Every structure is written in structure tokens, then in C-alpha cells.
Amino acid sequence: MSEQVLIDPETRPVLGESRARVLEVLRAAGEPVGVQDVADQVGLHSNTARFHLDGLVDAGLAERQVEERSQPGRPRTVYLATATDVPAGQRSYRLLAEMLTGLVADTLPDPGKAAETAGEAWGRYLADRPAPSQRVDAAEGVRRLSAVLTDAGFAPDQVEDADRPVIPLRHCPFREVAEQHRDVVCSLHLGLMRGVLQEVRAPLRADRLEPFVEPSLCLAHLAPVKGHAARTGGRRGR
């Protein structure tokens, strides 16, 4: 592997910690890299690594390719850092995010519910489902949810009350859009948390999201699931 290339310090907060680390891996490799290879180096679930890789492609910082194979079998999708110094991040797509969010808010009969449903699907996709034999208690559920929220850029803080967990979220990756379309964006985030907790079979549900209690603080209120029993079965199709 070639010598590691450090990215501009100003790019890291724009991209978010996890996505910046994924970009560093691509730039250090100097050649196309597979999803699992990136996930192993950065310490992320493969689905989360793919999410960040695709985000880098959308931002113009990486290219997606199909690996050439000389042996039988399905070729891998691999990623390669592009030779560009153009900064990327939420500012590059803010206008697009505002346009799409406005479209949802203006055209759907219940935009909040639609956003929540979409968020649940993404939460289930990004969560790492435990083995069927593994029991997930409330503390483990909070830990797994916090890990997904960290990777998504929410900067979750520690939970103080284990009986009635409240996760402080110190950063909203979509704050500017949320301030204009709070119902859609906050419902999406609430749904994402519900999807994660369902996927990891936690005895908790995301009860409500209290946005902007301070300029840089939202509170995710969790509640016990009544009559919870560990669920097993196949994962939803990806």
C-alpha cells in the first residue's frame, strides 16, 4: 500500500469523521479497493462503509468501478479516490436537499409519516443485526444505536439514565435543511433510530425526537418496548 495521504483539515469536519477516514483509506491505497477491505481498515460495518463510499462518489471524491476478473464469479464493485482537491460535503448538496425536502413537504399528504417510514428502512439497512442467539439488552441497544448515529455524524453523547434513556445529539448533519423543514427531516431521523433499534432487536423504541433544545443539541428519547421478546428471522432484503 502506498504512503497514506492526509486530507485537508478543513475537509474532515465537512465530510464527517467516518467519511473522512474512508476517503483517507482510498487515497492511501492508490488503487481500487473493495467495500469489505475499506470496512475492515476503518472499523465499520460493510453496509455503513458502502454508504460512505457511495457518498464520496456522489460528492465527486471517488469513482465506482467493476473489478476486472480473470476467474469465474461475480466481479466486485471497487472504489478509487479521484484526483481532485475540490472540497465536498453537505454544502455541495444543500440546495438539492432543500429542493427534495420541499417537494416531499409540499406534495405528500403526510410528509412526516413518509419520512419516518423511509428513515426506518435506512436504519434497518445501516444497523448490524446481532446473531439470533445473542440477547440484546437496553444498554447494548443504546450502544449499537449510538454507533450508527456516530457514523452518520450526529455526535451522540453518553446516556445518563439507563432506565429512561435519552441520547443527546450534539450535531445535526442536516441542520440547515431541518431548520426549514423540521417535520420532514426530524421525522426521517426519528424513523432511522426506530429502524436501528428494531434491527438489533433492542427492548427499546425511539419514542420521540426533541429538536434544537439548544442551538447544537437535540434529544432522542427512548422508551421500553412493552412485552418485548427477542425477534429472530431473516433480514429484510437489501
From TrEMBL:
Protein name: Helix-turn-helix transcriptional regulator
Pfam family, one: HTH_20
